[in-house]
Specification:
Layout lengths: L1 E3 L2 H10 L4 E6 L5 H14 L4 E6 L19 H10 L4 E3 L3 H4 L17 H5 L3 H16 L3 E5 L3 H13 L5 E5 L19 H6 L2 H14 L5 H13 L4 E10 L13 E9 L2 E9 L1
Parallel strand pairs: 1-4, 2-3, 2-5, 3-4, 5-6
Antiparallel strand pairs: 7-8, 8-9
Helix pairs in contact: 6-7, 9-10
The structure holds pantoate.
């Protein structure tokens, strides 16, 4: 596995090898979910292709007071996981390699970013779009894999790629879960034992709402109320949002009509978890 830490080396590597490259952008603290993204990247790259992983905790996508400083950075464990997963190229630049001190250009999506997490985390998706743009320019992947747990992020990146003519195929990967249904996330490790025990309520509530929808419930208000009630029953949970949205526009809907997405963001202590389910 080749390890690259500067922008110049990243560019150099491309000129040398023009194999099909599939990128898995991450912020590190790799877990089973990331390994699944890497597995899909390998499948998409093909036997002659190359799998690249980037690990970069992107300061631009953390709001002031969020967990940028304490975000886990287990460098050697991540490196070992990448090696074990057969990654060909690991790009893990320091912040100074990615952002000039006097940088003054960002990339912003203006529609899909206005709802869900965009409302609670102002500037977050501007940070994501900016860093993903830079990673695409630096590493020039043919394809990139993003998880569906971050459904809004995936939708925004697809839109950005379409609107700005990036020649990168975007591959969405189904959410990987713990046995009790909790979506794998680097932030799960912040949870106290009590919070961890209660966190699977997110998945349980979403599944119950999906079942209710399958049985004919069409009212967004009723479905959202059901999810709110179930989650509120967990003493450590504090709801940020529960919303039923159109899965393409991400705008709130009043009546369930496919494609719909039920999405939640919930704090357990200081840890904010998200999850979603597509409804029938
Ligand atoms: O999903 C993430 O881990 C990050 O938002 C990403 C896509 C790597 C950009 O920093």
């Amino acid at each position: 596995m080749k390890i690259v830490e500067t922008a110049a080396e990243a560019h150099g590597g491309i000129a040398a090898a023009k194999r099909r490259r599939v990128l898995v952008p991450t912020m590190g603290a790799l877990h089973r979910g990331h390994l699944e993204l890497i597995r899909l990247a390998r499948a998409a790259a093909g036997p002659e292709g190359e799998v690249a992983v980037s690990i970069f905790v992107n300061p631009l996508q953390f709001e002031p007071g969020a967990d940028f400083e304490r975000y886990p950075r287990p460098e050697s464990a991540d490196e070992e996981l990448c090696r074990g997963a057969g990654v060909d190229l690991l790009f893990r630049p320091p912040v100074s390699e990615i952002y000039f001190a006097d940088r003054s250009v960002t990339v912003e999506e203006h529609a899909l970013s206005q709802t869900l997490c965009g409302k609670s985390r102002p500037g977050h998706f501007r940070g994501v779009c900016t860093v993903v743009t830079k990673l695409f320019h630096l590493l020039e992947p043919d394809a990139a894999v993003f998880g569906e747990k971050d459904f809004q992020q995936l939708a925004i990146i697809r839109r950005m790629v379409r609107d700005l003519d990036f020649r990168v195929e975007i591959i969405g990967a189904p959410t990987v879960r713990e046995e009790d249904g909790l979506a794998c996330s680097s932030r799960n490790q912040y949870l106290t034992p009590e919070e961890r025990e209660q966190a699977p309520v997110l998945r349980a509530a979403l599944l119950e709402a999906a079942e209710r929808a399958r049985n004919g419930e069409r009212s967004a208000e009723a479905l959202v109320r059901l999810v709110r009630e179930r989650i509120s029953a967990a003493p450590r949970a504090r709801i940020d949002y529960v919303e039923l949205v159109n899965a393409s526009s991400l705008e709130a809907v009043v009546t369930l009509a496919p494609p719909s997405l039920l999405a939640v963001a919930v704090f357990f202590g200081k840890t904010r978890l998200i999850d979603n389910i597509q409804l029938p």
